[in-house]
Amino acid sequence: MVKILQGQAVALFAFDIGYEVSLEQVRTLLSSIPIQPISRKKKTPNYLQYTKPPQVLNLGETDIFPGHLGQIQATVFDFGAISIAYRWSLTEVSLVDLPEMSQALYSCNLEEHAKEQVQTLMQKIHSAIIRPELSTLIEDYYIFVLEKIDIPLDAKELLAQHRSTLAQMLHFDTQTLSPEQQAESLNQAVSYYVNDLVLVDWNAALIYDPDYTDTLNILELLNIELLEARYIDAQLDQRLKNYEGIVQQSPEWPLPLRTPYRKAIEDLAELRIESALLSERVDNSLKLIGDLYLARIHNAASKQFHLQDWETAIARKLDIIDDLYQLLSDRANHAQNQTLELIIIGLILIEIFMTLFYRG
Q1: What is the pTM of this model?
Q2: Which pLDDT band holds residue 181 (cuts at 50, 70, 90)?
Q3: Among candidates 3, 8, 144, which has minimal Cα distance to 71?
């Protein structure tokens, strides 16, 4: 029976708190440190670093998970997001007990507790947040880290001998999963050395590696990326519903010096720009390209998170917004041209009337 001599259970909760956060101000308001730089190990190039390193704050201890005392950390990102991380130490825990532990952890009311942590933190750094507003969306993710086990196993041995247990843990399930479900849960496996392994599923991951920090940070960032994709998508949905009625209305009759749909056109232009800027800032926070080890982990998790599907949906809605913007702009231009034509016709009629009046 394999025992975990050293490890961690980590629960991540991502929140959108506003348009932007000044990390410089955060440092002056609270005691914080920049996130640990990406290491140079595993052929990571020296240029691969955060463009604006997020700030990490320690929020103290918690006993919300019965029988386990945990630590709470907050990671603040400049593009208006916060990740709350709960960490519990795993020592002398049997590997076969992980499914039961993961199920118990998943059943805890951590979302509400994490939301309270964010609300308290937002009050403390309120002056550093541009357009503060806590979104109702929350994205959670759970990571189990095996740093050291009592029976050394390479990646293939661990996966072969404990396939069912690992799949159950990733699904927070204590019952044995079918071979098909096990295969689906374990199909995104990434290794660098023969004795390390990363398994990524849609809501949980396993890291079997004593040098786990970079991988953990990448998964935390990816959880934030998923949240921001959902946030942008929800914002676009809401605004499209608001403008659906305007499109179906009959064109307004323009008054002199008044532009019809002006507010709607300005809002659409602003929405399009802000959505593009937020997406760009999230994507540029840490560039992972090529066949680098961390890029492979990012790609594997992106597939499980269906990030490409979210990005496709967002792109499609931005195209619809472009069409709406063009439609309303064309309507406004047409209405203005009609007004000018009527004014010109009116002036001509007045001139004709005045000419006939004075001749008479």
Answers
A1: 0.85
A2: very high
A3: 8
